[in-house]
Design goal:
Layout lengths: L10 E4 L8 H14 L4 E6 L4 H6 L8 H9 L6 E5 L2 E4 L7 H7 L1 H4 L3 H16 L3 E6 L4 H10 L2 E6 L3 H19 L5 E10 L4 H14 L6 E2 L4 E2 L2 H9 L4 H13 L1 H6 L14 H27 L4
Parallel strand pairs: 1-5, 1-6, 2-4, 2-5, 6-7, 7-8, 7-9
Antiparallel strand pairs: 3-4
Helix pairs in contact: 1-13, 3-6, 6-7
This protein binds adenosine-5'-triphosphate and magnesium ion.
Adenosine-5'-triphosphate binds next to α1 and α10.
Length: 308
Amino acid sequence: MRVTTTGTSRTVLVANQKGGVGKSSIVSAVAGMVAAAGRRVLVVDADQQANVSSSDLGVEGDKGRGLSMALQFAEPLTPTREVRPNLDVIPGGPALAVVTSVAATAQQTGIDLQGNLTRTLNNLRETEKYDLVLIDSGPGDAPLLEALLGTARYLLVPTKDDDASLSGVELLATRYLRARKSGSQIQLLGVVLFDTNPRATARNREVFDQVHDLLEGSGADPFETFIRSDRAAAVDLRTRHLTPLELVEVAESDQKNRLKRLRQKGTAADRLWSRDPSGLAADYQALTREILSRVANAERDRVDGGAA
Ligand SMILES: Nc1ncnc2c1ncn2[C@@H]1O[C@H](COP(=O)(O)OP(=O)(O)OP(=O)(O)O)[C@@H](O)[C@H]1O
Ligand SMILES: [Mg+2]
């Protein structure tokens, strides 16, 4: 029997309680790629820092108030629409801080953060017909992470190659297994190595194998794509609120206009730090392909296994 899965079930949570491992950068880059390819994407910024909505995508937003109300009272979510063609955003921000105290008193109040979020996100996905929903989560913030692990279908874990970041992966794996035990349908898509040296191939292979061993029994593999280190591009992406694809375009026109600007004595403020962000953009493109293909395979397995 052929069952058609709707794109609406495609919700990917990007998480690692360790800070600074590329969660927000990956959400922004992948969302930008998928939207530029003509598919509808929703980014949910579930982080008080609001890095992905405010810094990466440049959305002013409501400081996380809408998402906080959805979590507490299942109030309908209203996204900031078309921040790029095909790309909507639920902004994050400090209003999400209340979630921790709400979770602490959940037994007395009966507030079901996870149930509320699942219901409101499902309603939004149904009306808006998103092809992909990407949820960015902050470092720490265990109660919110728990609700997100109960809501999302897929989990993507970015990590750097240092021991502290890899311990973060282990910690998250434990939370992930706990969420599944309590009935969550979430499935680990894989681990992606972030901020790697593209020339350190032996080292990268070693870490890849280490992550592979770490994931033993989870049913997931590390992603083949590594996101290379490019600090200059990272600065430009955040300060100019650009996706990697947009930065490539800006850098190309910047090169063309260099002579003109030199003659006009352009200021340092309008100078790009990165000369050629195309390598980084190519990494994100390859990662996006891998993510979409793993999601498609997982959805097919669910249908075949009758779990759609
Ligand atoms: N390709 C890159 N190479 C080096 N640094 C990068 C790269 N991309 C992003 N960065 C920088 O690395 C830092 C961490 O990235 P990011 O904010 O995406 O991580 P995060 O896991 O979301 O952090 P947090 O836990 O604080 O939310 C940021 O300062 C970002 O500008
Ligand atoms: Mg972040």
